[in-house]
Amino acid sequence: MGVSVSCWKLAQAVSRLGQLGIVSGTALDQVLVRRLQDGDPGGHICRALSFFPFQKMAERIWKTYYLPGGKKKKDSYVTLELHQQESSRLLKELCIAGNFVEVFLAKEGHQNPVGINYLEKIQIPHLPSLYGALLAGVDYVLMGAGIPLKIPGVLDLLANHEPAVYPLQVTGSRPEDDLLVRLVPKEFMEKELPPLSRPQFLPIISSSTLAEIMIKRSNGKIDGFVIENPSAGGHNAPPRGSIKFNEIGEPIYGERDKIDIEKIKALGLPFWLAGGYGSPEKLREALNLGAAGVQVGTAFAFCEESGLSPDYKKRILQQIHEGKVQVFTDAQASPTGFPFKVARLAGTVSEEEVYAARPRICDLGYLREVYRMEDGSIGFRCAAEPVTVYAAKGGDVEKSRGRKCICNALIATAGHPQIRNGKHLEPGIVTAGDDLNEIKRFFPSHGFSYTAADVLAKLLSS
Q: How many CA atoms lie within 13 A of 90 on its CB side?
C-alpha cells in the first residue's frame, strides 16, 4: 500500500483483532524524519524511541529532526541525502530507527503478530531496515517486486547481530564488480543484546515458477507465499510474453498470467491469495482452494486507521459513493517499468495536467536504477528525473516518457508532501486495486467512513 498507508495504527488495529497486521517498510527513514519535523503529533515517536535499545542513536536523531509544534506550513522538509552503495551512517541509523519505531508501535499493547512489507527492488536500505524491524520483534517479513533469494539468509544473520551483505542488481555489471551492500550490526550496537527472534519470511510472488525458484535457490528458510494477482494495487508484475494493451492503454493479462494453484499447493507451504480477495465470497473461495487465508489491501487503505491523506481518502470514498471511481493500470507511471495501478483523482499526478506541470525532480531516489559507469563504479539514474540528465547517464529517452516521481508522490499521499520554494506542494498519487469500487460493502448505513474492524467483521461474517 505505497508509503505509510499501511501504517502502524492500521497494523495495530488489525493485529489486535486477531489477524496479521502488516506495516509498509518503504521509505521509513523519510517517514520518520518528516513526522518529527511535523512535531511528532501524539508523541508516538518519542514513546517508541524511549524503548529503542540504542539511546545515543535515538537522541541524535531526535535532536537533529524534531521540531516542537511542527514546521511552519510553507517551510520545506529537510532533504536527506540519497542512498548509495555505501550509504552514510546517518541514513543507516534512520533506517534502523524508522523501522523499529513503526514495528514497535504496531505491536504496542497486545501480544498478536505483526508483519512488515518491503519492495525487493528498493535494495540498498534492506539491511538496516530489516535490522531495525528485528530489533522491534517483527514476526513476519513479506517482500515482493523482485526475487528476494538472499533475504532468508540475511534474516538468519541479522537475528544474531552478525554482519550481512545483499547483492545489488546493477545494469551492465561485470563478474569482477563489487555489487554488495553491507551492514555490520556491531558498528551500531551501543550494548550487547541477546539474539533476536527470526521472523517468518513470505515472498510475494505472481507465479508457481517463481515459488519453485524461491524454494530451490534461496539461501535460507521460506515459510510460505503470498500469491498476488495482477488486480492488486501498487506495482504489478508485467504480463508474460509480448505486452498488448487494451483500448485505454492498460496492459492486458492473459492465460499465461494465471497462477497454477495446484502447483503452489504441491510445494507444501502455506500460502495466502492477494488481489481481488477483499470479500467474504473470495475469502471462502481462497480457503476452498487450500489457501491459509487472503491478503487484503484496498479495503484497509481507505479505512479510518490508514495513513492515507484524509483529503484524498474522503474524496475517493465520495467517488465510490457516487459510483464515479476509476482505477487505471498505468504501464508508464513507475520509473521501474512495472505497471502501477492508479486511482484517478483531481489534483494528483493521475491527471495529465498535474503531471505535466510538475518539474522533473528526483531527490528521494528509492526507485532509481543502479548501473555500471565506464570507470567501473556504480551510478544511479531514474526515468522520472530530468530527461537530459537521464540521457546523459546513458538512459533510454523513450523509457522516460510518462514516468512519474512515484517516490515523492507516495510520500505526499501519506500526508507528508514536500513544499518547494514556499509555495509548490508535491502532488500525491493514490494506488488501489481493481476492486476499489467494491469497498462500498464496508460503508455504514449512513455515510461512508468505516474502520478496520468493519472490514474484518464483514470479511469474517460467514
A: 12
